[in-house]
Amino acid sequence: MKKVLFSHSYYYQLDSKQWEMGEPFPPLMTITAAAHLRDNGYEVALFDVALRKSEKGLEEVLKQFKPDYFVIFDDGFNWLTKMCLTTMREAAFRMQKMAKSYGLTIITCSSDSTDHHEKYLDNGADVVIKGEGEVTLLELINTLNEGNAIDDIKGIAYKEGSKIKITPKRPVMQDLDQMPQPAWDLIDVNEYKKIWEFHNKTHYLNIATTRGCPYKCNWCAKPIYGQRYNSRSPLRVVNEIEYHVKNHQVIHFWMCDDIFGLKPGWVKEFRDELLKRNLNIKFKIQSRSDLLLKEDNINDLVDAGLDEVWMGAESGSQKILDAMDKGITVGQIHESATLIKRKGVKLGLFIQYGYLGETKDDIKLTIKMIKELVPDYIGISVSYPLPETKFYDMVKNDLVGKSNWVDSDDLDMMFKNTYSPAYYKVLHRYTHYVFYIEKGFVSIKNILSRPHKITLNKCKDVLKVIYYAPLAFYKSIQMKKLA
Fold first, then answer.
1. For the whole model, what pTM was predicted?
2. Of 69, 94, 161, 308, which shows the fewest CB atoms inside 10 Å?
3. Which option is the CATH number for 204-391: 3.30.360.10, 3.40.50.300, 3.20.20.70, 2.30.40.10?
4. CATH code for 3-161?
């Protein structure tokens, strides 16, 4: 029986911002690919780097397991891997070269290697899988085992002499139920749980119910699944949830889909199956403001256990939303946010600064939206050019000195825009401070109107007003100077 050693290249400890957050997730796509190969007769193992500081330890695993193939298969459900961070790319190169020194065949599948296959092939990879990888990986390894040529396999890049050969794209899977349940036995779930608990946070596990996104935001790259949208059956998803409840005592889940519950009727079936099995869970999702307003979506989600929604609001300026081809209105953001909060569900907003043509008036509208909606959480970034997007094509001539962030806290504006990169870094902090202050004002109002319901968190929010008000004032002065 041939042996395949899997790994991936997202080291949380190499991304200080994410490590300090203390919310690591296992590499879901990696263990799905491992399960698929195992179901087809291969012996598999995993060198999980998520909680490691470096690739130290890989050599020992290579010696003990003695694999025939080393596969770096990144988790495409982790949005951080789509950003193609330099630290992770370099870590992948080091692992490839180490495994290559043992004479192994090296196969890599990730968003970054799909976009930059030539870099990976020049640094130890024998084959790069471009796009969705499980079916391609199985066909590739079967073909290599038989000693046949790989030029007819769709969705790969490889070297033939000094030339790089790229085969036609492989269509994405439509029937996701053909994939087995991820090989969770390869993951030490308790090690992940310890990190969450150390940071005094409720432990969440990640589950994917879909692949792809049909929307056309012109800054969003889809190197793995494209713009197709396919769903697993509610039955298969609930089976996986039940497995975790029984085996890992986990009842909180992060549905890591780009868009959750888009298929008509899916959420209702999902809710009914959970209720049928008496599975009382809590989960958080990513969704769109327009989608949440459709039919009884929000009611079915709440009945199923929805606890938190993250919406891609991006901007409070309709001009910027239209420029992004976002396909939503500021009015829909306000309406859905109000509905979510009325249902007792926590609200997170993704905010994006620095899109082409953004002015101070647009920025003011975004800050106004945050102050009016007062979400529970915000996630702020600046526009990031990803290959194969319309936005990338608009700014690619500016990407001379730098085309990738080093880590997720880099926040560098890598193209020419209205304001300087320094301005946007200050704006990032200023917006957070304004957000904390606004949350504090809301807590003050709640305490005054219902003093019998004072909580520790509300008291902390009030103290934040005192702490962040002078900092926000200082940042506003900095911004005026930088502008």
1. 0.94
2. 161
3. 3.20.20.70
4. 3.40.50.280
